Amino acid sequence: MGDFYQNGVITTLHNLSRESVSIEQMEHQLTEFAKVRPLSLVLPSLYSELQGPALANIVENLTKVPYLNQIVIGLDRATEDEYRHALKFFSKLPQNVKVLWNDGPRLKKIDALLQNEGLAPKELGKGRNVWYCLGYVLGSGESESVALHDCDILTYDRQLLARLIYPVANPTFNYEFCKGYYARVADGKINGRVSRLLVTPLLRALKKIFGNLEYLEYLDSYRYPLAGEFSFRTDVINDIRIPSDWGLEIGVLSEMERNYSTNRLCQVDIADTYDHKHQSLSVDNDDGGLSKMSIDISKAIFRKLATNGVVFNTETFRSIKATYYRIALDFVETYRNDAIINGLNFDIHSEEQAVELFAHNILKAGIHFLDNPMETPFIPSWNRVSSAVPDVYGQMIQAVEEDMEEFGS
Predict the structure, then answer these.
(1) What are the pLDDT digits (tens) for 289-299?
(2) Cα–Cα distance between 75 and 99 in angstroms, integer?
(3) Are 230 and 147 in contact (CB under 8 A)?
(4) What is the reported pLDDT for 245?
(5) In this predicted structure, what is the pLDDT of residue 2?
(6) CA dist., res. 394 & res. 363, Å (int)
(7) Could you tell me if residue 116 is left (phi over 0), alpha (psi between -120 and 50 degrees) or otherwise beta?
(8) What is the predicted pLDDT for the residue at 247?
(9) CB contact at 8 A, 315 and 262
(10) Virtual torsion, Cα 55, 60, 73, 237, nearest 10 deg
(11) Cα angle at 122 between 121 and 127, to 5 degrees?
(12) What single DSSP character describes residue 379?
């Protein structure tokens, strides 16, 4: 049974009893909520994920979900034949399903138009995929609340989605945004290295150096800040600006802190167990795996602090690195003891190897930040895009409809 402790400035919605509310009862409530507040789901997907075990199970679970008005799937890295296959793959879903073929000529034409205006994402990846999906949701006007989760969740069941969307679906709640959290424990070990060994120790190091800044207290209130599962009211999409790199999750949290009071934000326990595909450490490659992820996430945090008036220099980043390193090593000992008391395996060498890499990458991220003061990694808000290209939503909807009609037969 989960605890009821409220930590930090964000409301935590626990799973206090697994028996008192069944998935059928929760889905019945959500179906009633959807009559007042229509609900959508966004699924950013690589084509390769259609060939793995996770997405097939996700789709099978979603066929039983009665309350979704719309499912928007962003499909990346797909040829024409693969897009045709994707349409068949998702055709078993009974909801109103739209599949955005991001590599198709119609959507690439819209992307080129936005590129000419300086409004399109500059980097390929999940951030770009999510951004276009959210633009489609906004333009379609089919929902008032939307959830988003990854397509590689090996332990998925439909209760995860129900708990994730419930806080922004319930008309009696006042939450604009909800972040999912869960214990990253699978195969007899503790996972989630970037969150455990980078984000939390880095936030604690920054608080030690700069004091208890509101932003740092805010981020440190999230139990799993890098979770790819979140939900929000649809009007949130209008003016949110997100990074296109691995800083997506931190960027979304930062935008919510900028735009809303913390009493309109929450986090919810969505799963007892959670596992998905794991990134390699990529010690010798700053452009891949957890190495790139750690650099992008660190830069996202540093940029946000700079907008709050924090001044950095090279010596500051050396102090951050040193402080982080000591705190992170203490966390390794903490997690080792937690693993032992729970009968889990724990590899101290690999944990400390990750800490060493992250420490180096914090300094790399800091130096990059100082050397590129004019860097603008954020994708423009949809408010700005629709102001510059008033018919952009209509163009997107038409492109998706024509793609699905042409290639879905």
Answers:
(1) 788 899 999 99
(2) 7
(3) yes
(4) 74
(5) 59
(6) 44
(7) alpha
(8) 80
(9) no
(10) -110
(11) 50
(12) P
DSSP one-letter code for 8? T
Write out the two tokens for 50.
């259609």
Distance of alpha carbon 391 from alpha carbon 383, whole angstroms: 12
Task: Name the residue with tokens 């069941």.
Answer: 157
Q: What are phi and psi of 61, to 5 degrees?
A: -65, -40
- Tally of residues, the chain: 409
Sign of the CA dihedral with 307 first, then 312, 318, and 324 last: negative
**Per the structure block, which two tokens stand in for 375?**
């860097």
Give the pLDDT confidence score for residue 281 in this predicted structure. Answer: 61
The pLDDT of residue 186 is: 84
The confidence score (pLDDT) of residue 284 equals: 63
Do residues 227 and 196 lie in contact, with contact meaning Cβ atoms separated by under 8 Å?
Answer: no
Q: What angle do CA 192, 370, 282 make, to 5 degrees?
A: 35
Residue 408: CB atoms within 10 A of its CB come to 14
148 three-class SS? strand
Per-residue model confidence as pLDDT tens digits over 128-172: 999 999 999 999 999 999 999 999 999 999 999 999 999 999 999
State which residues of the chain have pLDDT below 70. 1-2, 19, 277-288
d(CA 357, CA 375): 24
